[in-house]
Amino acid sequence: MSKEKKTKEQKKLEKMERARKPFVSAWGYVGLSVLWFIPVLGWLIWFFNLFSKKTNKRSYARSKICSVLFLVIVVAILALALFLMVTFDIAPELTSKITELGLFKGYAEVVGDLAYTK
Fold first, then answer.
1. Would you say 74 and 91 are in contact if contact means Cβ atoms under 8 Å apart?
2. Helix 55-87 vs helix 105-115: angle between axes, to the nearest 10 degrees?
3. Distance CA 93, CA 59 (A)
4. Fewer CB near the last or first residue (10 Å), C or N of the chain?
5. Structural domain boundaries of the chain?
């Protein structure tokens, strides 16, 4: 029974020691971000950081994946919206409303040109 207590106490001590390990500094996060921008090597390091023993490195890698997925979804929605506007001739109506308001004059000309280049 005392042997079981020691192992439980040792596990608690080991857990506390792991918790006391130094966190990644602010410059460490900047360095990781720069490193992850390297096309293939950075992506491999990013993948391995997902399974790192350091909780904060692992969490930071997961947060970067979430932000990249969010960005991909937003860009896909915007691309689909632009495609549908051009395909179904919604763009001329939209461009007339935009020009009436006087907003994005250059944008209205470009989108209007795209709509009529079929």
1. no
2. 60
3. 46
4. N
5. 2-75, 88-118
Residue 117 CA to residue 102 CA, distance in Å, equals: 24
Nearest to 58 by CA among 67, 48, 71: 48
52 in Cβ contact with 60 (< 8 Å)? no
- On whether the CB atoms of residues 69 and 78 are closer than 8 A, the answer is no
Q: What pLDDT is attached to residue 2?
A: 53
User: Which residues touch 85 (CB under 8 Å, ≥6 apart)?
Assistant: 91, 94, 111, 115
Residue 43 phi/psi, 5° resolution? -65, -35
* Residue 22: pLDDT band with limits 50, 70, 90: low
Q: How confident is the model at residue 81 (pLDDT cuts 50, 70, 90)?
A: confident
Q: Is the pTM of this model over 0.70?
A: no
